[in-house]
Amino acid sequence: MGEDWREEELELEATSASAARLFDIRRVIGLLFVIYGVLVTVAGFFVSDADLAKAQDININLWTGLAMLALGLLFLLWLRLSPTVPPPPRRAQEDGPGAAPPAGG
Hints:
- Helices cover about 70% and strands about 0% of the residues.
- The protein is built from five helices and no strands.
- It is rod-shaped, with a radius of gyration of 24 Å.
- The protein starts with a helix and ends in a 10-residue tail after the last helix.
């Protein structure tokens, strides 16, 4: 019965680490920029001549959408190259650096 709570604790720690990786702010920002970038880029393909004339013949939606796509992809690349490291197990934190090594190891 004493080991049941330890197994449950380890399971919860693993779930917590997974949730931390899933909700990394780089992932959220990257996905939002990619989604909005696609929407704004598509809007840039359907611009009228009157809208272009108002913007001095610069397709602002197209260029802004492409920049948002690039920024979102950079955030996702950053996440891929430098993933979130889960915190060390709680037991290692409690033992501390001056603790004796486990017996039999």
